[in-house]
Amino acid sequence: MGNWKDGTPKTAFISGGGSGIGLHLTREMLKQGTSVAIFDLNVEDSLLSELRQLGAGKAQVERYIVNIAEPESVDAAMDEAAAELGKPDFAINCAGILRTAVFTELSYEMFEQSIRVNLIGSRNFAAGVLRHMPRGGHLALIASLAGICGSYTHGAYAASKFGVVGLAEVLRTELKPRGIAVSVVCPGEIQTPMLDAERETGSAVTEAVNEFAGVMSVDDAVRGIMQGLQKRAFMITPGFRARLTRAMARKTSALFRWVVDGKVAAALKAEQRASAAR
C-alpha cells in the first residue's frame, strides 16, 4: 500500500483492533512488518492465532483486554504493551460505537455512552499513548464525516465525533513542536458490522441523507486511510464522494444544508406515503 513518509512503524498501538476498521488496519500493519498491540473489549483466541500467523517471522502481535472509556485501565494496558512490544511510533484509536435516534427519542444513557466511548475514549487513548510515544511518532484518531456535518438521528454520534475532530486539532497544534504528527480520519459510511446494525434498526431518512457521500467497502476505505496515514496527512477522508461532502460542509455550508434539508423532506414524505399505503 505504498511507503511510509518516515519509514514503516516498528510498533503500533491500535484500539478496536479486534473488529471492523481496526482489525483491517491491524492486518495491514502486520503485513508490513509492524508489531501491533491490540486494545479491545474482546479478541478471540482464534483471531489472535490468525494474526500471529500473519505476522510470523516479521512482527509480533499481542492483545490487551480493556474498556477504552476507563482511563486507569487504558494507562495500565499501555504500560504493559510498551514494556512487552516497545514504545509505539504509531497509534490509532479505532474504538467507537454508533447509537442513533431522533434527539427527542434519544435517551440520556445513549447520549452519555456515545460521549464516553467515542470522545472520552479518544482522550484516554491519546493520553495513554503520549506517555510512551517518542519524538517522530504519529497519533491518529478515527472520527467521521459526522464530526464535520451533522446528519439525521446522529445527535449523540455527531456530538462525540465533532469533539474528536476538535481534540485532534488541538493535539496537532500542541504536539507538532514535540515532533509528533497527528491525523484525524473522517470517513463516510463504510460497509462494516456497525453499519449493518444501523441499517437494521435505523432510519430510512438517515440512509437517504448519507447516500450523498456514498458507502465504501472496507478494503477501499482502508486503502484510502493507509495512503493518508503514510503521508502523515492531518485530515483523512477516503473516497471522492466523501471528500466532496466534507468540502461542501466546510466551504459551502449554506448550500450543503439546503441539500440536506431537501433530502430529509423528500425522505420523510416517502415514509409518510409508505405508511399511508399500509
Automatic annotation (TrEMBL):
**SUPFAM superfamilies to which the protein is assigned, alphabetical:** NAD(P)-binding Rossmann-fold domains (SSF51735)
Domain (Ketoreductase) ranges: 10-193
Q: Which InterPro entries match?
A: KR_dom (IPR057326), NAD(P)-bd_dom_sf (IPR036291), Sc_DH/Rdtase_CS (IPR020904), SDR_fam (IPR002347)
Superkingdom of the source species = Bacteria
Q: Which GO terms describe its molecular function?
A: 3-dehydrosphinganine reductase activity
| Single biological process term from Gene Ontology | 3-keto-sphinganine metabolic process
Q: Name one Pfam family in it.
A: adh_short
GO annotations of cellular component type = membrane
Which family is this sequence assigned to?
A: Belongs to the short-chain dehydrogenases/reductases (SDR) family.
Q: What is this protein called?
A: Short-chain dehydrogenase
